[in-house]
Amino acid sequence: MKHLDNLTIHRFRGLQDLNLQDLGQINILVGGNNSGKTSVLEAISTYCRPLDPLEWLNTSWRREIKYSRKPQLDALRWLFPQNSEVSHTHVYEGETYVSSNGDFPVTESRAIYREFEGISELGEAENSSASQLEIDEIEFDNILRGAELELKVATTFDPEELSVSFEIWENQRFVNRKNRSSAVLPIDTVTPFSHRIEPLQISLLSEAILLGIKPEVIKLLQHMDSDITDLVILSPTGKRPSLYIDHKRVGISPLSAFGDGVRRLLFIALTLVKVEGGVLLIDEIETAIHTVALGSSFAWIVDWCQRLDVQLFATTHSLEAIDAMLDASDSETDLVLYRLEKKESQTKAIRLDRETLHIVRDELGQEVRR
Asked: Rounded to two decimals, what is the model's pTM?
């Protein structure tokens, strides 16, 4: 049994009653633009940390980073299905619902988002006497938009539903009150641009060094550049540390001096190590990786997913990436491709296991993305 065996996204963003049956260890999501591939990754991300409000906030922001970020509540609101039949002039309420089975003990995850207007607790603390203010003394500027995020899960280890609620206020930093829960599966997301965030790379490399896996990470980078010999963290000015690559021809050079392909593979490798025994999500897996290096890079990823018991979900627009993933696997690899097809208000998934995919691509040469 895998971490997630069957997954149904009943309500999440624009997805409704999407069934992903008989999931593999390696899962590839394809489909046309706006078919919901990234939304599936987001639904899985929140499902694996269902009681963690920071996971919900981080998920809502990921696709905003490459553009100007929306206000916190606006980004969060759009995770929840929009009901056009209900008027939301000032406030909005929405609900997500995802269910699954597998080794992960969470069987259902529901989240309810309710907007409201009022005075935040932080604002009250700053005024210290806010509770004593008369209604007519409260200035209009003190009225803020907020939202309650109510998170509920059903599990196999507790007959009662687990539930927590949080308040999030517009234009104020969310302070997470520690809420420990066993309803957590190790998970992380690689976006098409997250490899450009160097501080995150440094943190992940430090973890890989402690786990003794740095030599394997270097082997992966050598698929892109065979002259790479080492990865080091240095602080030449004694202030902020930076990540450097030791290179046979150019010596020790900052990571930023190398192409996106090297940085992308490094980030994928380091993130994979971080989620051992869990789930890795990669949006647009082919991003920045040259077609020549796709096969060897994917073979490394498949191998280490198997070694570390990581279930992979990856989206792609590239037929070359699909063929490379097929070539990187063998008959024993639990590889599944899902083609998402949007029809009116519902999205359906066409499932192709590795054997069927091999026949369709290698023997018939048919298109499988749409």
From this structure: 0.89
